[in-house]
Amino acid sequence: MNRKLKVLMSGGGTGGHIFPAIAIADEIRKRFPDAEFLFIGANGKMEMEKVPQAGYKITGLNIAGFDRGNLIKNIGLPLKVVSSLAKARKTVKEFKPDFTVGTGGFASGPALFMASALGVPIFVQEQNSLPGKTNTFLAKRAKAVFTAYPNMEKFFHGTKTYFLGNPIRKNIITDLIESDAAKEKSGLEKNKLTILSVGGSLGSRTLNNAWKEHLDEIIEKDYQLIWQTGKNDYQNILAETESKQNRNIQIIEFIKNMELAYSAADIIVSRAGAIAISELAVAKKPVLLVPFPFAAEDHQTKNAMTLVEKNAARMVKDTEMKEKFWPTLMEICESENLRKEMSANLDFFAKPNAAQEIVTETLSTLNIKF
Where does UDP-N-acetyl-alpha-D-glucosamine bind (predicted)? Predict the structure, then answer.
């Protein structure tokens, strides 16, 4: 291109929408260093902080989702939608983007709808195996939809759909190391089976309760446990397990070097958020998924089932933890052949080059040379 490329991005509400949008923008900027970017987010949501931290401009819409739990809160929703559409229209007209990429979240709807209405090509990136309502609606107007799971065409009739994966943190791709070296670096013993438990950045009370219940058995089996508790339960768990803490049991509030923890683990126990699963697939460690049951449209259970159907994971629901958690975990721990098989099957979902391939396909569709 002879002139400066201008790209409008929209995605927010959760890290699962924000970080893929930033990763795609980073990849475009790598190819077009002088490209100009503008993000559209929702005021009061985490993108208004995270996007500027990543070095991009963002403008906010006063938009919110439908509150099923408190219907009275929805009284002002129609006005918010109308004002958001008006601001999105004004933003698109003033910025004049060459194309727009949306990764889901409240602001994506008005942003991509108005971009499309004004003749700007739009692209949708869907992280989950069950698409959100916003992305399903927008896909009808999109040039292409990029998914993290196969066989998603059934949700996006008539729109080109590409199974390219979720963009994930670069260091998960580049900094994974051999398991023994990672255990040594983490202060663990090389020859002991190591379980990593991650419940998202805030932790998971379901997982925390499970480990409290079975900590004696973990110690008895002489397994090692890297237990990420999250902020809310950390101090209580430290106090409750004080007599059981040793080198084998590492209790951590938040894991900063996730690539090291993934590398050290022989088995991972995790929630089933879209980005977590994409990282787990790249790490290729056998995984027990415990989906968060209150995610929108129960999409975490759908994500987990997609892996379970290919024998790339095991799943236990929150409601089944008492009966099934420990036996399912032991099934994985006690069978090296099963662990190898699950790791090999995870490779189908591993898409370490997702951001590059999404950008390549976008530019190719628009015949933009790079």
Answer: 14-16, 128, 169, 201, 255, 300
